[in-house]
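hiii so um. not sure if this is the right channel but i have a protein structure encoded as tokens and i wanna go backwards to a sequence. like what aa goes where. can anyone help
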């Protein structure tokens, strides 16, 4: 069991071993699929650290005790660049920790995901691809989010997870996305992600983009939960880089209180 900022007994109460095993099996399956597509092992700074199999942070800074699930009206489908899937600094997985209906799809230019192709044709959903409107050929596809026009269709935000260069490649090289309405994300959010340098001050990381979209769709509670979980991730990752144990800061307390107050008895 990973060390944590709270006693191990309390940790066991917050997260069952069965839950860890289920997530570990899912991760192992994803890793096996990625390994088939790559001839070289992934090596990067911190790759030798002993990590939690679920949250992928170093064991002493595991954040699993603070994972809280909630629900939202909108859904997220994350198209993940293969190189991004390896990175422990990736924030897209935080969305799925909070919103269990989140779906993840690996992107390979010549092999579109069959499940994603089927979902894009499913009339239950109204997908929007999140992408800037800074190019002339994109502007005809730009739409505003008007929930009143969707009827019973579920709004879906498609996030392209990778560097901005990779995201643009996914957008340009995926013909099956060509007819999806584009929803540009104009925000006034202060960037809080400090683990990688953004290409621009206007560029949010994937989790921050999800927070902003949840606010846009009226899912304020879900946005708040994800926001606090994101803060915990940042704090624990910063502690890992300093080789320190994280303290029980305000975001952690908020999530533990939220879980206690929103768990059915």
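sure thing!! here u go:
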């Amino acid at each position: 069991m990973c060390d944590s900022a709270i006693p191990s007994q309390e940790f066991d109460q917050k997260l069952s071993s069965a839950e860890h095993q289920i997530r570990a099996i899912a991760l192992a399956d994803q890793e096996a699929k990625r390994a088939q597509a790559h001839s070289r092992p992934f090596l990067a700074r911190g790759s030798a650290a002993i990590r939690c199999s679920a949250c992928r942070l170093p064991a002493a800074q595991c954040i699993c005790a603070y994972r809280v699930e909630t629900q939202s009206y909108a859904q997220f489908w994350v198209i993940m660049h293969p190189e991004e899937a390896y990175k422990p600094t990736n924030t897209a997985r935080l969305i799925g920790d909070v919103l269990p209906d989140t779906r993840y799809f690996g992107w390979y230019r010549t092999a579109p995901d069959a499940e994603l192709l089927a979902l894009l044709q499913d009339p239950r959903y109204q997908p929007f691809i999140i992408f800037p409107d800074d190019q002339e050929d994109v502007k005809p596809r730009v739409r505003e989010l008007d929930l009143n026009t969707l009827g019973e269709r579920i709004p879906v935000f498609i996030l392209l997870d990778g560097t901005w260069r990779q995201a643009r490649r996914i957008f340009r090289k995926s013909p099956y996305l060509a007819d999806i309405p584009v929803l540009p994300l104009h925000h006034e959010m202060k960037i809080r992600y400090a683990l990688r340098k953004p290409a621009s001050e206007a560029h949010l990381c994937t989790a921050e983009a999800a927070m902003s979209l949840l606010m846009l769709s009226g899912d304020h509670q879900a946005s708040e939960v994800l926001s606090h979980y994101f803060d915990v991730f940042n704090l624990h990752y910063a502690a890992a880089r300093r080789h320190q144990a994280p303290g029980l800061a305000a975001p952690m307390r908020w999530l533990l209180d939220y879980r206690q107050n929103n768990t059915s008895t």
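oh and The CA atoms of residues 73 and 188 lie 22 Å apart.
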